Amino acid sequence: MTPGSIGVSPVGRLRRVELRRRWRQLNAESRWGLVILALILVLSIFVPLLSPNDAYEFVDLPLQPPSAALPFGSDHLGRDLLVRVFAAARLDIALAILGVSVPIVIGTFIGTLAGTTRNPIAETVWDGLVNALTAFPEIILVLGIVAMVGADVRGLLIAIWISRWAQYARIARAKSLALRDAEFVQAAQVLGYSQMRILVRHIMPNVFSEALAYALSDFIFIIVIIGGLSFLGLGVNPPTPEWGAMLAEGRLYLRTEPWLILFPGFFLSLTAIGVALLARGLERISKGEDE
Amino acid sequence: MMTASPGSLADRTLRLLRHPVLRRLAQAFFVAFLLMVFAFLLIRLIPGDPAMILLGDEATEEDVIAYRKLLGIDGSIPSQFGRYVSNLARGDFGVSIRSREQVLSIVQKRLPISLWLTVTTIFMTVLLALPLGVAAALYRRTWFGHAFQIGASVLVATPVFFSGLVLILLFAVQANLAPIAGYHAGFPANLYYLWLPALTINFVLVPVLARILQSSIVETSSEEFVEAAIIRGTQGWRFYWRYLLRPSLAPTIAALGYFAATVVSYAVIIEIIFNLPGIGMTLVDAVRNRDYPLVQGIVFLSGLLVVGLTFMADLVNGWLDPRAKIR
Predict the structure, then answer these.
(1) Which domain holds residue B30?
(2) What is the DSSP string of B157-194?
(3) What ipTM score was computed for the predicted complex, to two decimals?
(4) CB contact under 8 A, A137 and B303
């Protein structure tokens, strides 16, 4: 990571040239998205690390307005809001990544499986199954599963995993339908590879890029769901710093101490906006829409 | 369909059955059946014995048996499913564990508020998204078009529970144009309580729909029939409605149907923020109280609602744009 070692070695220099080339290919939207996300990541790593205050520690009187010592003020229990906002950033981003990564793998696998089968009955049942699962309003299905599994982080993640894989399966199926007669698949069949090997090693990698593009917009949705359910008191529970839970706590002081919701809400929105800009920018590049 | 068709009744019935609308309807029923299966399976996600979870360790044997019966989890799985289906067919969605009231009657009591919220929201959406989308398409190379793109990206990504709180701060606390929370029934008066929640949902919905409308108008304007209309000298409202807007509306209507699920979803959080005692608030309370039958009933009914709305959006779509055939 030190600048010197990268600058000296030829491989490092090549990598830097490559990075710069990539950066130049991006459009304004995706650049802004990357800058915003990098800023939030850096802040979420260093603010809790460098601050003298702990996210759970009572450091001042409750409900103090922003000042030099406490740039974001203190919350209703007298904890440092700045540290809590960025400790929450760590948790929310980590949970959202966890929430996206499991459905993308499961969904892509199931979708590829469904796309390469040639059984007409399986296809009809499949269509109904995915349509039914995606017909439930997202948050209501998540709430329903959380009600059954348990209103905590574990329940929330299970609910997200159960409810989000179908979209990836849909994408993967559409893509693998087009791929199952491709020449490289036929070549693999001629070589006598097993069905499973062709599926996992030859078709899935080609399906994955499309699923990844969707994963960016899904990330926004999942970070909103995590915040939303915690806001309702059914996800991450206090005193753990989490943006949605902090909004729910701060909501009671809306009239007199609005910064309690403005800071966590602003950074939650900023994260989602950063991902949204990046997703939209990349989408426009892949469509060749840029003039 | 109106012409007298030769052939037997069976032939005619067969032809009717192949009608795209009917086929779409059959699909909707199949999906509804699967929704029912999902809702049935939902209660089986509970780790352990639901009756024991609700009653605690000191429960007597009779209590546990009575609760299992109440939850519909006594007997074998197939017999449970059979009972579940036949109860649903009679409109029996089970009994709330908390209030011992019929789930359906609870839903009937709370539904009007949620429906009012949805109707107000959709009305506002059309009012805002149509002019915005058209303007964004016509002026897409000017500063307005660029501001629209950036503004839309920002608004879409802002979570409703944050934008809702900010709107309360601005319009209820600072400007005093809306109540902070609460609801009173009765038509014109309830709009005072509903306009701010509806606006909050539209902060997400309008940018999405206006963007879809914008890009489909741009697409339509390069079609040959538009060129032909211009050459024929069609002008004014007739040109804008018939040749530009009407063929472009189909994707937007389809999207509105697709986003019905999202609206119903966000309405849950909105009802909590604005303290509207609708279905969403009922659901969240039921989840907090572990009122399993009530949760199950609401999840199933909301899925049905979305299937119905999507079906209707498809029908409107086919009417609006002859190119969009119902498949």
Answers:
(1) 21-89
(2) HS-HHHHHHHHIIIIIIIS--S-SS----SHHHHHHHH
(3) 0.84
(4) yes
